[in-house]
Amino acid sequence: MVDKRNGNSPLSEQPLLEVRDLRTYFFTRRGTVKAIDGVSFRVNCGEIRGVVGESGCGKSMTAMSILQLVDKPGKIVSGEILFKGEDLVKKSRREMSRLRGKQISVIFQEPRSSLNPVFKVGNQLREVLHIHEELKREQEQKKAVSQLREVGIPDPERRMDNYPHEMSGGMAQRVMIAMGMACAPDLLIADEPTTALDVTIQAQVLDLIRSLRDDHNMTVLLITHDMGVVAEMTDNVTVMYAGTTVEEASTEVLFAEPLHPYTQGLIASIPVMGEVKERLDVIPGTVPNLIDMPPGCRFAPRCRARIEFGLEKCMVEEPPMFEVKPNHFARCWLYEGGGDEA
Ligand SMILES: Nc1ncnc2c1ncn2[C@@H]1O[C@H](COP(=O)(O)OP(=O)(O)OP(=O)(O)O)[C@@H](O)[C@H]1O
Ligand SMILES: [Mg+2]
Predict the structure, then answer these.
(1) DSSP secondary structure letter of residue 100
(2) Which of 25, 57, 67 to mutate to test the pocket of ligand 1 (most atoms within 8 A of CB)?
(3) CB of 26 closer than 6 angstroms to any ligand 1 atom
(4) Does residue 128 form part of some domain?
(5) Is the C-beta atom of 121 inside 6 A of ligand 1?
(6) In whole numbers, what is the pLDDT of the chain averaged over residues?
(7) Are 242 and 287 in contact (CB under 8 A)?
(8) Whose CA is nearest to atom 16 of ligand 1?
(9) What's the pLDDT tens digit per position in 223-269?
(10) What pLDDT, on the 0 to 100 scale, is given for residue 2?
């Protein structure tokens, strides 16, 4: 595993994307849902950065915030999202729609819901090429076919004439990736790209994403709830819990030495092949209500370490991110004094 973040290249100093203290709230009749409430991370050029956490912790909302696609009653209330040094939060709708698909592409969990069912996939792919590049008709057709070939679709000429429902989930996801890649984006955001697919197809699609990164030096923000996918695919990881980032490290370090009790729980709950456990070592308890967030650390009510060490502060004051070791951050009072406040 290569940790590009610790490399000496000048690129490692200027992240492609930097999310700074992002807050995205939903103003509902029942109250304010603080879906994202203090998320910060950097994505360096050429890395695959994982964002991992349980369902509802705000992974997709983070992606939607970066893309400026948060719908009402949701709104980004504070924070910065710097892409190549420019704040996306301040961009106009027009500027953002130009960026999306050209410099930043996104693929979602359910490929068929993102494809238009009434158009042939070839036409949809050509449409994407058409928006961003001025090509002649034949060139467009040729490029679309070669794009389908690159993502491993057999017999691409024939597949151009398929409607989405005529394709398997894996093939449809390949088409989505081809569409996302069509304009050679700098950043690909993949939100659970393989969750809806069979296990073997999952592995193939993940391999494809990795080879696109390797061949085109594309940067990938890979959102998943699956620690196995994180281990297989990513260089660095950001762990989220209840709308905040709780730990950040290189993937190697995170698995070798997880600091946050939540991350420790996530890792302990990975099923080990061939090992029969009496019961999966899941983290007991549930994610807190995002409307009435209790004071203190969001994880405190479920935290074994809090109980074991009898830390009272955890229920009262929210911890900051501590840089416990170089480039290894954890939002946990256990590390107060053990590291610098980030
Ligand atoms: N339209 C909405 N109105 C109110 N709250 C919302 C709305 N959309 C999302 N949320 C809140 O935002 C939180 C984060 O949702 P998000 O979809 O980002 O979670 P996630 O981490 O992607 O989960 P999953 O793994 O299930 O995809 C949810 O817990 C939900 O309460
Ligand atoms: Mg999601």
Answers:
(1) B
(2) 57
(3) yes
(4) no
(5) no
(6) 89
(7) yes
(8) 58
(9) 999 999 999 999 999 999 999 999 999 999 999 999 999 999 999 88
(10) 41
Number of domains in the chain: 1
Q: Which range has the worst mean pLDDT, 202-211, 260-269, 305-314? A: 305-314
Strand boundaries in the chain, DSSP class E: 17-28, 31-43, 48-52, 74-83, 86-87, 104-107, 187-191, 219-224, 236-241, 244-250, 322-325, 328-330, 340-341
- Mean pLDDT, rounded, for 97-124: 89
Any domain includes 10: yes
Q: Is the CB of 287 under 6 A from ligand 1?
A: no
Q: Compute φ and ψ for 34, nearest 5 degrees.
A: -90, 75
For residue 265, the enclosing domain spans 4-103+185-341
CATH code of the domain in which 197 resides = 3.40.50.300
CA of 191, nearest ligand number: 2
What distance in angstroms lies between residue 34's CA and the mean position of ligand 1's atoms? 10
Residue 290 lies in a domain: yes
Ligand minimally distant from the alpha carbon of residue 32: 1
Q: Specify the residue for token string 């969750």.
A: 195
Q: What percent of the chain has pLDDT over 70?
A: 92
In a domain, 314, yes or no: yes
Indicate which residue's Cα is closest to atom 6 of ligand 1.
26
Residue 142 C-alpha to ligand 2 middle, in angstroms? 35
